[in-house]
Specification:
With about 280 residues, the protein is α/β, with parallel strands linked by helices. About 40% of the residues lie in helices and about 15% in strands. The chain is built from 12 helices and 11 strands. It has helices at about 20-25, 60, 80-95, 115-125, 145-150, 170-180, 200-210, 220-230, 235-250, 260-265, 270-275, 280-284; strands spanning about 5-10, 30-35, 45-50, 65-70, 95-100, 125-130, 155, 165, 190, 200, 215-220. Strands 3-2-1-4-5-6-9 form a 7-stranded parallel sheet, with helices on both faces. It has a two-stranded parallel ribbon with strand order 7-11. β4, α3 and β5 (about 95-100) form a beta-alpha-beta unit. α3 (about 80-95) runs parallel beside α4 (about 115-125), α7 packs parallel to α11 and α8 runs antiparallel to α9. The longest helix has 15 residues, at about 235-250.
Length: about 280
């Protein structure tokens, strides 16, 4: 099968990374099927309805696909329960390469999507697991941090002074496209970070300088963070996210990698460059 015939299914094609992956693949002239709950049209791609909680939506989305970009079901404490049956169906339908979006905080065999990561090499001969650090986009749009920045100029976390290699979703998408469309699959997990590890106080300082509005970091305890998140999600998922903040405070995310440079040939975007590009959204 040549490149012109290959068909890539992008799950979560209206989301933060999925929309970027679909757009990049389409711009390269590749056939893309954009999967979302409402089959939302995406430029350059064929829309299809897909819902992790509705197995009857799987067959049509997989028809003719040989590669798939996987966004786990949002907020699911045990995504493997629905993802693994889908992936077995995908393999039977002819998918030969799968690229999974996971997290730098979750290793193979770890909680949540870690079980899917662990299973992927046994399901597909061609695969990759993207393990990006925290998204720079967490400070824009409808993310909780963006909302509190707009509301009262505050970022609330239980991360203390721990540092994170925040990464732009555009850079994650560029790595994803390399993993999906490259002649050889990575067949490994890929830790993806920005060029520098910053704590939330440092993030607040950059936002203050770029937007001209004072932004500060409010340090919460694990319990305070868990309880705050529980208002918007199941308690199990809230506890996991608060635990990730606690791990940041202990240094778990204080690292940078060369993945973006090595695979795309260009350096990852800095947080300051990101903030300057997104200035209009940050002011909203």
């Amino acid at each position: 099968m040549n490149a012109a015939e290959e068909f890539t299914l992008v799950i979560g094609a209206t989301g933060t990374t999925g929309s970027r992956v679909a757009a990049r693949l389409a711009a390269e002239g590749r056939r893309v099927r954009a999967a979302s709950r409402r089959a939302t049209p995406v430029d350059g791609a064929s829309p299809v309805r897909f819902d992790w909680d509705d197995p009857t939506s799987y067959e049509a989305s997989l028809a003719g696909a040989d590669r798939v970009y996987l966004i786990p079901p949002l907020g699911a404490p045990d995504p493997a329960a629905v993802m693994l049956p889908f992936l077995r169906q995908a393999r039977a339908a002819g998918v030969r390469r799968a690229v999974l979006l996971s997290s730098s905080a979750i290793p193979a065999g770890g909680p949540a999507v870690g079980r899917v990561h662990q299973a992927l090499p046994g399901l597909f001969a061609e695969w990759a697991v993207l393990r990006p650090s925290w998204f720079m986009q967490n400070f824009t749009g409808d993310h909780a941090h963006a909302r509190t920045i707009r509301a009262d100029g505050t970022i609330r976390t239980a991360a203390g002074e721990g540092r994170v290699g925040f990464v732009d979703a555009d850079d994650i998408a560029a790595v994803a496209v390399h993993a999906l469309a490259g002649a050889q699959a990575p067949n490994t997990d890929l830790l993806i970070t920005g060029p520098a590890a910053l704590n939330y106080s440092g993030i607040a300082a950059v936002l203050t300088e770029v937007t001209g509005r004072t932004v500060t970091h409010s340090r919460l305890t694990y319990e305070q963070m868990r309880d705050r998140l529980t208002a918007d999600m199941p308690v199990e998922f809230a506890a996991m996210l608060a635990g990730m903040d606690q791990a940041i405070a202990e240094g778990a995310e204080d690292r940078t990698t060369d993945t973006v440079q090595r695979l795309t040939g260009r350096p990852p975007r800095s947080f300051r460059a990101f903030a300057e590009r997104e200035l209009g959204r940050l002011r909203v």
